[in-house]
Predict the 3D structure of the following.
Amino acid sequence: MILSTHAIVGGAIASLLPSDPLLAAVLGFVSHFAIDAIPHWDYPLRSISVGKRADNRRLRLNRAVIIDVMCVGVDACAGLALAVWLFATPTSAWLMALGPIAAMVPDALQFAHSICPREPLVTLQRFHGSIHSNRKLAWKLGVSSQIVFAAAVAALTETVR
Ligand SMILES: [Zn+2]
């Protein structure tokens, strides 16, 4: 899933656990793997390699890398902003940032593994790769299904809390 979708799920979890930030962060982190198991679409990156055999040790700063970093940065910031906008109350803004960040961290750790393939990143990467759905949706279905999924998560969270 794209980072924005992970962030919204992390924000939803955090909003249901306003008095337990540690549990919210742990469940946000775990939620990443659960929703990556759902068949989905991920936007293509030009130069940064992702996935089971990703290796970014020879990555050099160039135009393609800058565009990739901007795509990932916009995705992460938009997800964080959306999650805070959807779920934060005046007293819970920091918690609403913690849940989404924890939910996005596994993909940052994937990148860390592609640069420094050592434990515990190796084991985490193996798990992430094994749980990640191998079924890739076409972009139209992929984008629309993630919008519907994120909206459903937000609506369901509103009815529960
Ligand atoms: Zn992932």
